[in-house]
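Field: COMPLEX_INPUT
Field: COMPONENT_COUNT = three
Field: RESIDUE_TOTAL = 1174
Field: MODE = joint
Values follow.
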Amino acid sequence: MLFLRELTPAEDTALVPATPRPRRHFTIGEAIALFTLGGLIVLAIVGPLIAWYSPIVPSGVPFLPPGSSGHLLGTDNLGFDIGTRVVFGLRISLFAAVTVTVISAIAGMILGTIAAFVGGWLDSVLMRVTDLFLAFPATIVAMAIAASLGASLSSSMIGIAVVWWPMYARLTRGEVRRVINSPHVEAARMSGTRGVRLLVKHVLPSVVPTVLVTASLDVGAVVLTLASLSFIGLGTPAPAPELGLMASAGMQYILSAWWIAVVPGVAIALVALAFNYVGDGLRTVLRAKGF
Amino acid sequence: MVRFAIDRTVSAVVVLFVLLLLIFTVSRAGGADPVRGYLGANASAEAVAAARERLGLDQPLFVQFGQYLTGLTQGDLGLSLSTRRPVSEELAQRIPATAELALWAIVFALILAVVFAGAYSLRGKVAAVIRFVLFSAASAPAFLLATAGVLLLFAQLGWLPASGRTSYGPSDGMTGLYVLDGILAGNPAYAWDAFQHVLLPALAAAIGPGVAIARVLADGISGSLKSGYAQTARSLGESESTIVRRHALRNASSPALTLLGVQIGMMLSSLVVVEQIFSWNGLGQYLTSAISAADLNAVAAISLVLGGLYILINTLVDIVLAIVDPRVRLT
Amino acid sequence: MSVATLDNLSIHYETPLRTVTAVDQVSLVVEPGQCLGLVGESGSGKSTIGLALQGLLTKDTTARATGHLTVGDRVLSPTDNSSWEGIRGSKVTTVFQDPMTSLDPTMTIGHMLGRVTRSSQDSLRWLEEVEIRSPRTVLKAYPHQLSGGMRQRVMIALALARRPALLIADEPTTALDVGVQAQILKLLTRERDSLGCGVLFITHDLGVARAMCDDIAVMRNGRVIERGTSDRIFDAPSEPYTQRLIASRLTLNVERAIPLGMPESSVIASMGEALRERGLDADSVTERWERRELTWTEFAPPTSVAQTPALTLRGVSKAFRSGSMFGAKKQVLNDVDLIVAHGQSVALVGESGSGKSTILRIAAGLERADAGEVSVAGSIGSGVQVVFQDAGISLTPWLTVSQLLMERLANAPQTRHLDQAAHTASARLALERVALDPSVLSARASQLSGGQKQRVAIARAIVVPPTVLLCDEPTSALDVSVASIVLNLLNLLRHELGMSILFVTHDLAAARIIADRVDIISNGRIIESVPAEDIRAVESEYGRRLLDAVLA
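Field: COMPLEX_OUTPUT
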């Protein structure tokens, strides 16, 4: 599983001189990834409306390989249409991953900004808490929480959100503190701008893009984590069309009907790859533009 | 150094304590019922109530927590409801399996990182294609990589085994790490067989972290090569390859190592999935079965062990960092 | 035989978009034992020549070269790496500008030197040679454990240990404190004499070049426009550009009462405007400047300045925690008293770490004093404004100049109640005062040059005229000619607006131009206070050292 997030900026720059690449726009590969991502999102939204099979009712002969007439991506051991289930699964994956990322990013950003801006004991307390969370292996804790809550998609989402927000709080706090001590903010303070206006006009415009880029990279990681949780039985139970669950159920037929496990796995990989590529491109472009 | 060790131990204890507390609180608030899992869905209400009492589950949460902690200090982790054996016994049996898998995965991740960093430093079309393949592979979930490995190297080519830790019986060596046991026992065939078994699952977990670290390493090396000290070395007549070896690699390894610490956390979750696929009788497989049985004693204990492992590995990474970079001090 | 020869050398950088000529048909000769100064402003091509002579341009795939380059008896190609074998690192070595980044942070000094000398005995001897005290300790130290001056000595030891025929010194003292600069230059001269190697000394600092070099070549836009002996260049420069450079150079002999350097059209426009406003004759400004008849007092309002305090610091102390939460505190300021009167200009001069910037930050309200009182006529925050050292990063990158100026106008109590049109008019006036075109209003910082950014920063500080303008080394990041414009503008504004100025700098010459009084600060205490016109009369040992450092 690829985890692309940056280290906190202070650690990063202290050890290696930053080398901003001069590229200011997306490469062709990143543009393709952006289109793929758009396509997948459209498919996830529109797909279920136009699908002619049900994801939870058998629609054909079991074990049809991909390319069979009427079942482009084949059928599984129970005769479900895999293509239909993957489209529904995509919808669930994307929705869950984006929700988890957005909620943790917003929560982390608000708390991190407050910690950095207010400082003092509030900062200490908040940072102690995030330190504690960051000392855990995040996904293992997510698994433990989800297991304790009882297996379901929402348990997994809660489990992941609980371990994910502290990373944003850290990132945001670091960025806000870095920017707030930079000469341009001191100059703005000298020019009489204070409080929330200072934050909104002179600090956040350079913090938000960083958080956005990290979030776009994280969606890929969250998709993968959700799929892993679902794979080990922490998602909604069968016959729900969850991609991780489908892959795990297909594992027992892997030698006779590989596509049952592989097709949902490839769908997950595609989503994660698209997010990773787009997020990586965004990061490079923003870095080149001086954020 | 002594102070560093004490600090780290204290903070590890605090972290693990909080982790336990979190799991306990959440499990009580959550919907999973361990007794139903223990007795089966058809058990009568009386039987359930009796079992609850016997297992101490009717006590207030803090009493349960206190009892658990008391047990913990005596090495008693409670009863595993899914296997009906003490959790500590189950763990003792499985920890070496996961440790072996994790160690190999880390070793492979580091090797892959150095090799892939080369690919990331090259220019030209072929290198771009290689980078794309690496990036794609690294974006795939570990279970897909594992599946692909099984299909290709086991089913198609028949080069590698796809399940279990060995084709022979379990090792009776002292470490419980089969490859090492085989070497220590002077039995290369056993070690080689164990290595073949660990290769696929460890690689499946190592590719993602390997690529992520490779990217940071390559970035760090290219940054180092543009640095003032690289220029100094050039002006003193050092060759480019010497500069990479003597200066760039070492300077770039600090951020790469820091990232390794983070990546290992992600790798642990991949291991849980991978163990499932390769019938690797370790903590991951135990966790999966414990989850489906709502065996919370087991879940808590496994989280503790994996959490402790994570903290231990990160402490080791910090020590290595301080050795590599003289500006870093252990605090 | 000469050590190195450049014959008609041209170097272009070919990028997909355009070709840039960095060096244009340059011919130079360095003789053994000679120090040749290569002087020019940023972008003049002097650094490219330095890189070419070390064979380091071979790394740059966009570089193309024509002409000839010889080191000793070897004819070399600046772009072909193979020809440099046995030259780079043995016949030619380099001392770089920034000792902070030019030593590998993960290697001990002994390890680095050992790779050059091959024996720890020799390493030790070389450290002694460059006058490092306790060389045995330094051998085991890592770069971050040494001061900037020490690192530069190590750098020199590394470069000299190979006994090169040609030593390239690329701005070797620019990043160092003034006191250390002089020692390093002395060391370089001594080593050149004892080794007999030729030195190519690249610098933007004419004073340093004069102190160090036998011959000087002045570069501009990739060409050598004038060369001659050091004395000839300084006493009788023939090219107008050289004349300008020398005229705008700051020494302790420059006349203080009149504008610095030669007439500068942009400053003249602002001057004319200021005089016209007062109903005075503005037509002959250029001529009178040239004839050195134009004095700053003409721009002052007729009312005499009251000698009441504008800025008062009394018993100010400040300590910073070093490193971690529980680290020892370092006393940065120790019971400092400082008074700047209305209309007075005071310079605070000291080396880095002396506490001078901390005083400025406390006066600005950006930092709070641990003890003592700070008062500004009026109240803190509204009565003071700051011009920071690096204007480039003191302007919020995503806001336009107009937004920055308007923000200040909307915040200041004096202008808050005025309408949009009045604000726009004030913003334009402020830009005029710093000699910038109103078209700059819609620009962002990234679209401006270094000098323009610093002038925008000044405009922002004076768009609502403050009682005291605090300047934190506002010219140290600028080229000489740009720096003189900024200093002239500051002097003009000060007289025109009747502001007080607190000018923080490490450079006594610049301090003398701007200030009426110079306070010398060392280790967090003001140790001496002298009138600017009698700057040579400093008595403290530290003050004398600073004075010696202004070399020419």
